[in-house]
Amino acid sequence: MVFRTVNLPKVLEISFVLLMILAGSIAVSLFVGVTDIGIVRGITGLFYGWREGYAGFTHLEKEIIFSIRLPRILFAGIVGAALSMAGVVFQALLRNPLADPYILGISGGAAVGAIIGILIGASLLPLGIPGLAFLGAVLTVIIVFGIARTGAQLRSNTLLLAGVIVNAFFSAIIMFLISTSTSSDVHNVMFWLMGDLSLATTGEIVLTGTILLAGFAVLYTYARPMNLIVVSEETALQLGINVEKAKKILFVAASLITGVAVSVSGIIGFVGLVIPHLMRMVLGPDHRMLLPASFLFGASFLVVADTIARTLMAPGELPVGVITAICGAPYFIYLLRKGRGF
Predict the structure, then answer these.
(1) Which fold, 8-338?
(2) Which pTM was predicted?
């Protein structure tokens, strides 16, 4: 695998372009919906009306923009960025183009925790369901790493197989819990399993955003070691990289980011699978470029997908996972047909 020369100005230039795309996605999402405010009027009202307390908007429009849509948009961006970054790491370290953020069974563990929370009424507690979902994700990571670890080494193939086995086990538990639940519980469970961004709270947004930024800092620190590990672990060792330490840190960081994202949003497929492929195809395989690009474009993608999910069948809404699957599956099939592997 050949890496293009990537310098900081180039990274900043691409990141700025993607940041503008994200800003445009947010602007469209803010003013499009059941109550159509109008993009031009909305942007004008934001930029020129802030000194007058946004007097150009009615009280209802201000409530919709700042209390309903903006928190949800920020939430979607955070989750999309987290899943995309985790997908980059797992595809690189497992050397598997089909790897996604859920490859180690994290989604299954989080789902079991969330379903138990829904069934016992944990939604009445602050962070009740997300807390149980995150606990399930963390326990899954501990189990998978415990199974895959051989002495001091963490073998990628064994880790992948352990994740598949644990995920299959949790899938059986999920089916058992669903089959023994009441009809109303089943609806809530199924909606969560397909991805739900409608219940974003300020506390969840701040918490997940902080964890995401910390995770990005850790992952980007290891961008160069990841480049070398992808080429060859032997080459990385010869160049002074502590491969086992780097792999463990990267796996744990990506797993925790995924666990946080799944715990607050449910299982949203294809974001962490397709976005890294798309960015790699456009910008190349260098993780110094790939990580920030996937971060920003993944955020934009999920913001747009969630906007479609809440407007397509208005006044009702679809789970955002339905939209990401409709968009992601055909594109991934196209990649496979074109032979654009990892």
Answers:
(1) ABC transporter involved in vitamin B12 uptake, BtuC (1.10.3470)
(2) 0.88
